[in-house]
Amino acid sequence: MKTLKNLINKHPALAVVFGFQLFRFLLLPFMGLMPQDAYYHFYGEHLALSYFDHPGMIGYILRGFTEVFGKTVFVVKLADFVVTSFTLLSFFKLAGLFLSKTKALRALVLISSTLCISVLSFNSTPDVPLLLFWTLTLISLYKAIFDHKKWHWIFAGIFMGLAFDSKYTALLLQIGLLAFVVFSNQYRKLLISPWLWICLVISVLVTFPVWWWNYQHEFASFAFQGSNRTGIISQFKIYPDYFFGAIAHQLIILLPILFAVFITFTFKFIKRALLKFKLPKAKTLFLLAFFVPTFVGFFTITPIYWVKLNWMIPSYITGIIIAGMFISKKLVKAQIITSIVFHVLIAAQILFYLVPIKSDDTWIGWKELAIETKKLQAEYPNSFVFSDDDYKTSAVLNFFMDEKVYAQNVVELQALQFDYIGDNLSDLNNKNALFIDSDTRFKNANKKGKIPEELNAYFENITELQPIIITINGKEVRKFWVFYCTNYQHKK
Q: Could you give the C-alpha distances from 415 to 34, 53, 389, 394, 468, in angstroms and in order?
């Protein structure tokens, strides 16, 4: 403890980093379960080599934490917080390879101040392990390339593979590595080095479980992630709101000052390369190789495709190190102040729920829904429960309830990973059901007044019950329509 205190006194920047992390940790007990938390915990409850929409690393992590510490919302959040904290430590190690200690600490403050780190600390997504393994890969690649430590090619291959086992966008690590080698006059000779190719082969071998699962399931995951998006992009329709929406997201998740620095140095390096045909020195080129394909690449397609805010997150690792080379102490202070304001507002929202969220992507009301659903099951015994919103309601109820809760594959609609857990829906034939349907645009407590069309072909009778209204701090905040359905008949 005394050593830590002395370290903070010597490097005040560490106090800022510890402050942000302590703030996040203290908020964990007040965070309710997000649908994403529940869905990836659902992964862990149904262990497989991979999964329909993503590889399984986040599911394995949540399974490990809940096996050791118990199945609670806090433990799920703790898993995200711990992994993200290791990412920050790894980032500081990586930054120290490129920057002086003062600038490395400055870069650590920058990344710690972002809302990106708060999102990853509070919310289970594949990006949580992706960012850790992405950073560890870059550390190993640095040591292999610049320090000539050949064994680190093997470590880099392992971490690169584990990153892909977290999320498919980790493929940009291999792309970044090859781009660096091709464009670097000094290190182009690595193309004929067996160690580079050993690294890449090892990375592929580590991803074998994902490929094998896809092979067993007709490459369903690759098709889901790739073919539909490729088709939309190939149509090449311009959507200006997509572009400005991407900018707005990055302004929020990075905060305006850091985002402006990103844009400034990106423009500077691209202008120098295109107009003066001049590339930066090897180490800066290395950083850009893992920044440009992700940050600039995804930004390039924003006018024609809706790019999710988390797709660019891996680029922040090297992008913030580059920012640390240029950003002034004054701008860092401004970033910290801006971040504190945003985090205070976030804390107020979490603690007091000041602004209603018209979406299922919220931490509010899910546990209360589970309690009310259990009451309905007591009133309508021997009824199974299902929902139809991709995964959100079904995943959350599965987390909070002892009984299995089903998804929209009950009515033969695609249900993501729920389609791949081995359920024989014919076993539900002749049973009654409770259908739960979230009203995301909650305006009043009235019934829906009409039967969802997708139910009619599968049940004999459908009766709308009184909706479930969730009240928080005396305020009605969530609404769920409820339908009692009799005599289910599976069609296949």
A: 18, 10, 9, 10, 24
pTM over 0.70: yes
Question: Residues 429, 395: contact at Cβ < 8 Å?
Answer: no
Contact 239, 304 (CB under 8 A): yes
Sequence-separated (6 or more) residues with CB below 8 Å from residue 172: 290, 293, 294, 297, 314
**Contact indicator for 327, 267 with CB cutoff of 8 Å:** no
The total of other beta-carbon atoms located within 10 Å of residue 221's CB is: 22
- pLDDT tens digits along 185-216: 999 999 999 999 999 999 999 999 999 999 99
| Residues with Cβ within 8 Å of residue 29, at least 6 apart in sequence | 74
CA distance 295 to 316: 8
Buried residues in 296-307 as b, exposed as e (16+ CB within 10 A): bbbbebbbbbeb
Cβ-contact 121, 24 below 8 angstroms: yes
Residue 315 CB partners (closer than 8 Å, separation 6+): 290, 291, 292, 294, 295
Contact (Cβ atoms closer than 8 angstroms) between residue 403 and residue 376 = no
Measured between its terminal Cα atoms, the distance across the chain in Å is 64
Torsional class of 412: left (φ above 0), alpha (ψ -120 to 50), beta (otherwise): left
Q: Tokens 């898993």 — which residue?
A: 79
Q: 375 φ, ψ to 5°?
A: -65, -40
In terms of Cα–Cα distance, which of 402, 392, 403, 347 is closest to 366?
392
Cα distances (angstroms) measured from residue 413 to each of 361, 368, 455: 21, 27, 11
Identify the residue whose tokens are 């660096």: 180
CA-to-CA distance for 179 and 291, rounded, in angstroms?
A: 11
Are β-strands 432-438 and 383-387 bridged in parallel, bridged antiparallel, or unpaired? Answer: parallel
The predicted-structure confidence for 102-128, as pLDDT tens digits, reads as follows 999 999 999 999 999 999 999 999 999
Which of 108, 128, 118, 200 is closest to 159 using CA atoms? 200
- CB 400 within 8 Å of CB 370: yes
Which pairs with CB-CB distance under 8 Å and at least 24 residues apart come from 94-102? Answer: 94/135, 94/138, 94/139, 94/142, 94/317, 94/321, 95/320, 95/321, 95/324, 97/139, 97/142, 97/146, 98/283, 98/287, 98/321, 98/325, 99/321, 99/324, 99/325, 101/11
